[in-house]
């Protein structure tokens, strides 16, 4: 229940970032741009497809050390992609496009908080992580670099790819603005605050402390 709630809240954060029109997070940049290039395919579907590619990258990097349990990440990918489509539909139905820059910043901030809260919740039960985090962890272990550097390099790479796609097809920035940078910097900070404030309470709720004992 906590895992699914976390994925849904994170998807809601992605959709609110889209609504703000100030740029989506690096994680969602390629699926968003691709959904603009091919409108007949939803952002959630592109998210699922890209995440499956991340699982394939893990398999290539790990080789014989690739454990079949990592394939469970694909289930999380389909669930998260479905949630993204649902929350995109809900935000489009309930909320109107912000008409002022201040309101855009507000929805971007709420979106960042939701993404951070979603990550906080979905990683707590120790179930399979999403492939984005999975491939970062594999890169970190494979090349013996700190995880935060692996995340930074990964975020830069996917953002550059999304930027190239946007420039190539739209001759401008589509879905990549100041919000992309703010999300890359701010989500981790928000996550750290949530962990500090609520991690013990969440651990008690899901029974992790009893399991450890």
Record the SSE blueprint:
Layout: H1 2-20, H2 26-37, H3 43-62, H4 73-94, H5 101-123, H6 131-143, H7 147-170, H8 178-206, H9 208-212
Search tags:
single chain; 213 residues; mainly alpha; 9 helices
Describe the protein's architecture and organization.
It contains nine helices and no strands. The chain is mostly helical. α1 packs across α4 and α2 packs across α3. The radius of gyration is 17 Å and the shape is globular.
Overview in brief:
This protein is 78% helix and 0% strand. The chain contains nine helices and no strands. The model has no long low-confidence stretch (mean pLDDT 90).
Q: Which runs of at least 5 residues are low in confidence (pLDDT < 50)? A: none
Could you give the order of the helices and strands?
A: HHHHHHHHH
- Main beta sheet: strand number and arrangement? none
Radius of gyration: 17 Å
Bulk shape: globular
Strand tally is: 0
In terms of DSSP E residues, the strand content is: under 5%
Question: Would you tell me the structural class of the helices and strands?
Answer: mainly alpha
**How far apart, in Å, are the first and last alpha carbons?**
22 Å
Number of helices: 9
């Amino acid at each position: 229940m906590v895992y699914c709630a976390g994925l849904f809240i994170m998807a809601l954060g992605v959709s609110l970032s889209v609504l703000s029109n100030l740029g989506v997070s690096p994680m969602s940049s390629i699926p968003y741009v691709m959904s603009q290039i091919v409108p007949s395919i939803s952002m959630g579907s592109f998210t699922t497809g890209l995440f499956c590619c991340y699982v394939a990258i893990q398999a290539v990097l790990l080789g014989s050390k690739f454990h079949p349990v990592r394939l469970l990440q694909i289930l999380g990918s389909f669930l998260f992609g479905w949630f993204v489509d649902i929350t995109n539909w809900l935000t489009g139905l309930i909320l109107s496009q912000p008409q002022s820059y201040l309101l855009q910043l507000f929805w971007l901030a709420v979106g960042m908080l939701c993404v951070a809260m979603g990550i906080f919740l979905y990683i707590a039960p120790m179930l399979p992580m999403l492939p984005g985090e999975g491939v970062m962890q594999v890169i970190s272990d494979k090349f013996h670099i700190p995880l935060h550097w692996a995340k930074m390099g990964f975020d830069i790479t996917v953002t550059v790819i999304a930027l190239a796609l946007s420039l190539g097809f739209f001759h401008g920035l589509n879905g990549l603005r100041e919000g992309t940078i703010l999300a890359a910097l701010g989500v981790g900070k928000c996550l750290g605050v949530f962990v500090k404030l609520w991690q013990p309470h969440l651990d008690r709720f899901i029974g992790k402390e009893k399991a450890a004992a």
